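Sequence only, no structure available. Ideas?
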Amino acid sequence: MSELDEIHDDVVVCRACPRLVAWREQVAREKVARFADQTYWGRPVPGFGDPTATVCIVGLAPAAHGGNRTGRIFTGDRSGDFLYASMYRCGLANQPTSVALDDGLQLHGAYVAAVNRCAPPGNKPTPEERDRCLPYLEREIAALTELRSIVALGAFAWDGILRALATPGHATPRPKPRFGHGAEAMVGPYRLVGCFHPSQQNTFTGRLTPGMLDDVLRAATDLTR
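Reply:
I predicted one. Tokens follow.
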């Protein structure tokens, strides 16, 4: 079994955060009308992608009716639709959609993860819940031995990545790099790149356009060559 397989198996049985366990399971029981006929995953959601990835894309947490329903990060929700369409255009995915675990999606040179692995109420994990979950991201980064660039989807992911990298000794630069769309920072051997999160709030208002996301992903990919 590979290290990524071991991390996967550890993630999906985690019950370290009582509030998040209760919430994710409540959502899986009560569902929403449009998915009432589906069986929800209702567990922590592991990372997903190419074990030889040179680019890792990190979000906040699974969506209550996205990853928490389907069992794969950024799958089955509008944010995932926006992200994977861009990854397809940039040559990082074999198809532009991600709707279910068995939909045939494959990533090329990329891995997708999140700071928190359980859907949080209001999309707001507490600092304690973030810190309890960060070791999974730390382990994934270490297991991705070809990794060179990490894309932070939003300020929460930016901060979480900096914390995850500090644990194995990759000290946060001083002054501390500030999140921004297109912001870049070298942290140890990794190039950290910021991107607005592909939430509906950002994509519907035009704060994040398809071209803006494509530019970030292409820049992160180019940095690995």
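The first helix runs from residue 3 to 12.
Hope that gets you unstuck.
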